Amino acid sequence: MATQIFVNLPVKDLKRSVEFFTKLGYTFNAQFTDEKATCMIVGENIFVMLLVEPFFKSFIKKDIADATKSAEVIIALSADNKESIDELVNKAIAAGATTPVTKQDQGFMYSWGFQDLDGHLWELVYMDPTTIQ
Prior knowledge:
This is VOC family protein. By secondary structure, the protein is α/β, with parallel strands linked by helices. The protein is built from three helices and eight strands. The chain has helices at 14-23, 53-57, 82-94, and strands at residues 5-11, 27-29, 37-43, 46-52, 74-78, 104-105, 109-115, 121-127. The protein has a four-stranded mixed β-sheet. A hairpin with a 7-residue loop joins strand 2 and strand 3 (37-43). The two termini are 29 Å apart.
């Protein structure tokens, strides 16, 4: 069995977060969804658990970081091409996200990202396979 990754993120309003990520084209596993959490499907083995803050807090002893004021992680996802990055980030902006950084085009690598409604940072990266040796 391949290793799977489940990124757990606290959210203030689960319904609002689901609506936001649905606008970006993501789907959710109904089997792992209730009023406290949902499982967003990012890829074959990549999932993001969106947990309402009180439920997220039940798994930790630390305070929940305010992602609108500080950063602990940047969730980076690969993309097939530059155009798909621009398309997804523009969808995110239209759905209420902000873009804390500008596009980075280094020739061999292109990236751009957004800050979601709860302040979590998402980065999309395309690496030109012809430049990888």
